Amino acid sequence: MTETAPALRTTRFVVSRRKEGDDPGALRYDTYDVAVGPRTTILDALVAIRRHLDPGLTFRHSCFHASCGTCGMRVDGREGLACVTPVPSGAEVVVEPLANLPVVSDLVVDMEVFYEAFDEAGRPLVRASESVPGSTPAEGIEELERYEDCIECGICLSACPVAGSDPRYVGPAALAAAWRVVEEPRGRDPGPVVRLMDDEQAAWRCHLAWECSEACPSGVDPATAIMRIRRSAASARARRLFSFGGTR
Ligand code: SF4
Ligand code: FES
Fold first, then answer.
1. Any atom of ligand 1 within 6 Å of the Cβ of 176
2. From the CB of 173, is ligand 1 less than 6 Å away?
């Protein structure tokens, strides 16, 4: 029996074409009509546009399977990884770069500030040795693995309403990374990380919108991490207060 090919439909892609240094208020979009099937992803369509319609369209990708974190963008206003986001069923779809980071070209943003925040959060964590003979995984290792799953895509920062209004905010991904350090510091003193995150531009700047956790494609749940950092920071403050006889 021969399999019938899935029916194709035409979707109009409305794609942001801003360049570095452009006036952020001066929006420019180009439109492209692309034949898509039920399994076509946004990344498939962008690759087709670049190959057949516009070789100048700029976007980033690598793995095609939600691992490298490079293809984060907004599709009809919602953040997602283009490689695993199916083309929506409507006649038109709007594709834009991540928000809250400077645009370099079209759908590519400058991630430098985002990566720098990870350094502040004490990542990457490096063990003194790979393994301890006879050791068993720490209790609660699954909970820690959740933070290891961060693919540094920047989607949480784009979805965060606070980051949109305050560019100095450390951001949800770095705070989740910081909580990973506090939970299992691999022999380091986590105190400096807690003190760094106990700041009005860090853990206390979050407004509990939970958009970061909703949007995260890896299930990292930065919002819960932020709540835990706050609790840890508040306990550390209380300990300091009592150890100095309440004269802080
Ligand atoms: S926490 Fe989630 S959304 Fe944020 S950078 Fe990591 S994987 Fe991406
Ligand atoms: S291409 Fe790697 S996460 Fe999408």
1. yes
2. yes
- Identify the CA nearest to 62 among candidates 17, 127, 108: 108
Does 220 contact ligand 1 (Cβ within 6 A)? Answer: yes
Q: List all residues 6 or more positions away from 185 whose beta carbon is below 8 Å from its beta carbon.
A: 122, 125, 193
CA distances to 25, 54, 70, 98 from 21, in Å: 11, 22, 22, 16
Ordered by where they begin, the domains of the chain are 9-109 (3.10.20.30), 112-243 (1.10.1060.10)
pTM value is 0.89
Name the residue with the closest Cα to ligand 2, atom 3.
Answer: 66
Instruction: Give the separation between CA 77 and CA 80, rounded to whole angstroms.
Output: 10
The secondary element (H helix, E strand) that includes residue 71 is none
Q: Angle of helix 141-148 relative to helix 172-183, nearest 10 degrees?
A: 150
Q: Is the CB of 85 under 6 A from ligand 2?
A: no
- pLDDT tens for 27-46 read 899 999 999 999 999 999 99
